[in-house]
Each structure stands twice: as C-alpha cells, then as structure tokens.
Amino acid sequence: MSKVPIVYYCMDCSFSNGNEHAKRCPKCGGVITYKRKDDSYRIRDGKYDVEKYWDFLPLQDSEKLVGSGNEPSPLVESLELEAKSLAGKVMLKDETKNYTNSCKDKMAIVALSQMNELGVKSFVVSSTGNVASALAFLLNKHKGIQMHCFIAKDFLPRHRYMDSPNIIMHLVDSKYDSAQEEALKFTNDNNLYHDGGYFSVAKRAGLAMAFLEAWEQSKLNFDYYFQACSSGMGALGVYEMTTKMMKASLIDKIPSLMCVQQDSCNPMVKAFLAGEKTILPEHIVENPTGIAKAILTGNPTVCYPSLYKVVTETKGSFISVSENEIKSAQKHLNNNEGVAATPDGATALAGFLKYAETHTDELKGKNVLINITG
Ligand SMILES: [Zn+2]
C-alpha cells in the first residue's frame, strides 16, 4: 500500500497545512479535501475495497486499519430503465448487499481507520441509523475506540449492533437536527473528537468508494450520478474521488452530480430552484418528516454552499420527489431489479425517473449510475 503522505487543503481558498489534518479550513472555514503528495493513484490488487482503493483514500498506515474492508457490492444493469429513458447504460449500484445493508459500511471502515491513525480513542457522532449501525458493526470487534452516539428518539429502532461496552447511546427527545446540535455541544463540553459529519474527508472518501467500485466493475465513463441527499457528503465525496480518477486516467470527465431529496424535506432543492448559493431561513425545514428516514436533514446550512459549487460546476441538479414516486421506485427495484431497497435507496431512482421524464434528449445515450442504498 502506498506510503506517499496525504496533503490536506481547502477546497475554497487552497490553503494547506501539508500533512496536518483538519476538518474545516482555519483561514476561511471551507471544506478540507485531500490528495496524495505525488497526486498519483492506481487501483491495487486485493479482495477488499480499502486495499484495492488505498491510493484514493485519506489513509496512510495500513497497520491502523479497523476491519479488513468490504467485498464488492453488485452492479446491476437495468435494460428496462435503459429502454424507458433512452439513456445509454443505466447501472444500479446495489449497496443494500453490504454487511449492514447500506453504503455506510464503506464509509465506516475509512472513518474509523483514519481516527485510529489520528490516535482518537473516543468520538461523537449523530445518526439517523445507518451511519451508527455501520460504525457499531466494526466497533463490536474493535473495542479500543469508544463511540458516543446521539440519536433522536424516533430513530432509535433504526440503530443496530449498538450493544457493545464501547458504544454509548445518548437519546435526544427531539428531531434529528437537534441530535446533531446536542452532539456538537457534548463534544465541546467534554473536549472529545467529533466525527465531522459532512466535513470528514474520510467519511466522504469511504462513501465514494462505491463510485470507484462501479467503474472497476463496468469500466464505464458515467455522465450522471444520482444519489439521495441529506447533507450531501456522498455527492461531494464522488466529486473528490472522480477528480483523482481523472488524474489516474480512469475516466475523462466528472459526472453531473444529481442530488435527490424527498419533497417533505428538500431544503437544498428549494435553495437551488431559487438560484441561491446559500441556505436562507425560508429554505429550512423545521421538524422534517418523510418515508426516507436516512435523509431528514432539515437545516443543511453548513453543507450546502460547497455542495452547490460542485453540483453547478458539473452541470448537475437538485431534484425533489414525492412519497408516491419513492414508493413506485422502491416497488420497481424489489420486483424488477432484485434490489431490496428501502425508501432511502429508492429515492435516488425516483429522482432519475423524474429527471428522465423531462430531460429525454439530454439523457439520450448517456451513461447513468444510480446509488441504491439500504
Ligand atoms: Zn480556505
């Protein structure tokens, strides 16, 4: 595995403290991203994602890996969706087949391994279920790291694998955004490490392994990438990953990033349609509800500006879908594609179907990747 050090730098102002890790830019507060010092990347031999894609990840010490990694999830070509949309290839990345049934397994190993490299012994996270379950799955075997997990009461049943002495649950009697706020307060009050959420390079890189894996499975140049969007860390991660894939000459373009939200919680769509580069008070959704429970961030004020930049740069979009459209996409995945998607995962497909209805000419012959998670 590459021993070339990681260089962290700001996506907005390019400020860099070299190899020193930070979550936000000390100069402008922007998102910190990363590259290898030699800016050289290649896919290595191996059975698991982290060993194959090591060069592309913000990791430096293979001795500190927490877990061995994930085996590839299926990539399903949908002939039916190709015929219906007139797109070129329509590929479904079936992330429901991971250990804890979501794309968050790919995120968890990179996030925990980076914390292990940084010497973090105890960290704080807030979750609607999938993130914490994936982290907990690995922490059951790696008890040297402690997790404080803030959970809004309604989301408790979505948390699995939490019964381990190094996992401490903090129930918040309110909505998900409040759990995020409580987690930050607890972090500051107790001088602990916050996992960083959207601002974690490791979480974003881990999630984006799904895109790199889909490329390895298909060797396709994808023109569009659809993903359900809460904070948008998955889409931003794909932007960072595809930048490196371009350097490695694996692909010749960064796909248009298509972020899909449900219309009961779509603050980013509202801001985007209003032509705003930031979230304004009228875009915030108080007490968000919806069937796609993993994507209920009602106030993405801190995330949206950087996501807006990469979405517009790639000529992508923010798309809103209804509950019925999500249910219909879920039914299609279950009945026609053999993909056991939850409403969260089906949201991405619902976004594609909605976009295809009104952008037939634009999509004609184009290759599309849709991330279906649990
Ligand atoms: Zn900066």
Topology:
Elements lengths: L5 E5 L21 E5 L12 H4 L22 E3 L1 H7 L4 E5 L9 H15 L3 E5 L3 H10 L6 E7 L14 E6 L3 H15 L2 E2 L6 H18 L5 E5 L4 H15 L8 E7 L4 H7 L30 H10 L3 E5 L1 H15 L5 H16 L1 H4 L4 E5 L2
Parallel strand pairs: 4-12, 5-6, 5-8, 6-7, 9-10, 9-12, 10-11
Antiparallel strand pairs: 1-2, 3-4
Task: Please provide a written account of the structure.
This protein has 12 helices and 12 strands. It is of the alpha/beta class and 374 residues long. The chain has a domain at 75-103 and 201-372: 3-Layer(aba) Sandwich (Rossmann fold), CATH 3.40.50. Helix content is 36%, strand content 16%. Helix 3 (104-118) packs across helix 6, helix 6 packs across helix 7 and helix 7 (233-247) packs across helix 9. The strands form 3 sheets. The chain has a 6-stranded mixed sheet with strand order 3-4-12-9-10-11, with helices on both faces. The structure holds zinc ion. The site of zinc ion (ZN) has 8 residues, from loops.
